[in-house]
């Protein structure tokens, strides 16, 4: 369908340092991404610019330097540690005479390799098609030609228009299928809410050890490896916590700085598990010197998917790689656990983690009395749907007097949805 150079196994990596903080990337992370994609780096070109070159991103002189290295090393692909525009990609391919891949394309490629379930594969294909649709425009000159020849003459469409239409139709099909999956997930979540089973979701930077921790806590065999994006498909398991009872633990996809928007959109169903959780276990690689930056990046993605208001417990993993570090719980002034130090690899810190979960989930039930006027009837329906109503009756003026019992995160969610209005109806 597309006349493009085939990507191969030998790659030249390009990393530029920009003066603006928001455009900076990490060279070490690029090496990790490339090795996760199964590609071997045969050369690295670095440079510094104040801003990207509009035509070649890296500048004409730097592009010639990269082209010479590609020729010398017989490289199959040039991978940029940055997001390139379709025009920049095309211009660079003309100079290098090989395939050019940007950071987003590389992450999409890794996701395509890792997807295991039907849902995961659909989500990756959706992200790839959305990424590709922007690259059809002016990307390939042959696509502008009118189709011709016996059996190929269409209703006056150019090849480019046909390809765009096929892409749009495929995207619509995938969205319909994902909607079906989302409805099934929603039913599962509703039945858990009715049974008042709390959900705990693992989040964190990619390769922080979430799946290893998940396997330790749930005694299951989820795929875990020392590579970026080992987990794509959400996995749910039931665990028992003292003073709380049955709890659902969800393992989710890892986050990364400048996570492509197409991916965030495509993995909406997966990330929904995070948005609907009662507690987030934010797993941090304690041995990583950029742990602080990684925490900030995760918080940015959580804000993007509107999950930043859910209570969090920081789980510092890999303490076996730190000197004199032992599993422990750090608490704030009120005695609430805020950090747990564990080593999932060496099976250390599990009792401390369960104790912290018991402390946090055990006291997260909110009991309130509300007086809702007739104009706020929709909230009566909402609380009944959540199976949160303990008792309800109407007074002579049509106000609904109800007692509700529900998990604190759910109350905070509804409070946010009402823009704080619900707090006006609390009977003190």
UniProtKB/TrEMBL annotation:
Cofactor (UniProt): Mg(2+)
One Pfam family matching this protein: GTP-bdg_M
Record's keyword terms, sorted: Coiled coil, Cytoplasm, GTP-binding, Magnesium, Metal-binding, Nucleotide-binding
CDD domains recorded: HflX
Cellular component terms (Gene Ontology): cytoplasm
Top-level taxon: Bacteria
Binding locations of GTP: 204-211, 229-233, 251-254, 317-320, 343-345
Protein residues bound to Mg(2+): 211, 231
Location of this chain's protein in the cell: Cytoplasm
Gene3D superfamilies tied to this protein: 6.10.250.2860, GTPase HflX, N-terminal domain, P-loop containing nucleotide triphosphate hydrolases
InterPro entries: EFG_III/V (IPR035647), G_HFLX_dom (IPR030394), GTP-bd (IPR006073), GTP-bd_M (IPR032305), GTPase_HflX (IPR016496), GTPase_HflX_N (IPR025121), GTPase_HflX_N_sf (IPR042108), P-loop_NTPase (IPR027417)
Domain Hflx-type G intervals: 198-365
Coiled coil stretches, renumbered: 164-191
GO molecular function, one term: ribosome binding
Family in the record: Belongs to the TRAFAC class OBG-HflX-like GTPase superfamily. HflX GTPase family.
Subunit structure: Monomer. Associates with the 50S ribosomal subunit.
Free-text function comment from the UniProt entry: GTPase that associates with the 50S ribosomal subunit and may have a role during protein synthesis or ribosome biogenesis.
HAMAP family (alphabetical): GTPase_HflX
Full protein name: GTPase HflX
Organism in which the protein naturally occurs: Ferrimonas sediminum
Lineage: Bacteria, Pseudomonadati, Pseudomonadota, Gammaproteobacteria, Alteromonadales
């Amino acid at each position: 369908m597309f006349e493009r150079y085939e990507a191969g196994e030998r790659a030249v990596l390009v990393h530029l340092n920009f003066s603006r903080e928001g455009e900076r990337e990490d060279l070490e992370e690029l090496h990790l991404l490339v090795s996760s994609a199964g590609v071997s780096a045969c050369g690295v070109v670095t440079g510094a610019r104040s801003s990207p070159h509009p035509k070649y991103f890296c500048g004409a002189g730097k592009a010639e330097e990269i082209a010479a290295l590609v020729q010398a090393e017989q490289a199959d692909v040039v991978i940029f540690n940055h997001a390139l525009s379709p025009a920049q990609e095309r211009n660079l391919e003309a100079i290098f005479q090989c395939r050019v891949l940007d950071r987003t394309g590389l992450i999409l490629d890794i996701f395509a390799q890792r997807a295991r379930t039907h849902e995961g594969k659909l989500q990756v294909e959706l992200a790839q098609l959305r990424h590709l649709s922007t690259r059809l425009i002016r990307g390939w000159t042959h696509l502008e030609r009118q189709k011709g020849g016996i059996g190929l003459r269409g209703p006056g469409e150019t090849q480019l228009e046909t390809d765009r239409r096929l892409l749009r139709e495929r995207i619509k099909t995938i969205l319909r299928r994902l909607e079906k999956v989302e409805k099934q997930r929603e039913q599962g979540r509703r039945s858990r809410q009715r049974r008042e089973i709390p959900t705990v979701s693992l989040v964190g930077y990619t390769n922080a050890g979430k799946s290893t921790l998940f396997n330790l806590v749930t005694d299951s065999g989820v795929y875990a490896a020392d590579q970026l994006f080992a987990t794509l498909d959400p996995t749910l398991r039931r665990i028992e916590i003292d003073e709380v009872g049955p709890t659902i633990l969800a393992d989710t996809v890892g986050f990364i700085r400048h996570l492509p928007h197409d991916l965030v959109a495509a993995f909406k169903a997966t990330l929904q598990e995070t948005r609907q959780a009662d507690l987030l276990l934010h797993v941090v690689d304690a041995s990583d010197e950029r742990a602080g930056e990684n925490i900030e990046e995760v918080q940015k993605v959580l804000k993007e998917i509107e999950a930043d208001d859910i209570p969090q417990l920081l789980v510092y993993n890999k303490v076996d790689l730190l000197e004199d570090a032992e599993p422990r719980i750090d608490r704030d002034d009120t005695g609430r656990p805020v950090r747990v130090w564990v080593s999932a690899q060496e099976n250390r810190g599990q009792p401390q983690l369960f104790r912290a979960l018991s402390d946090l989930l055990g006291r997260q039930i909110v009991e309130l009395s509300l007086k809702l006027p007739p104009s706020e009837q929709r909230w009566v329906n909402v609380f009944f749907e959540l199976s949160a109503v303990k008792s309800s009756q109407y007074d002579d003026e049509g106000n609904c007097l109800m007692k509700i019992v529900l998990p604190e995160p759910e109350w905070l969610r509804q409070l946010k949805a009402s823009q704080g209005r619900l707090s006006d109806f609390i009977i003190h």
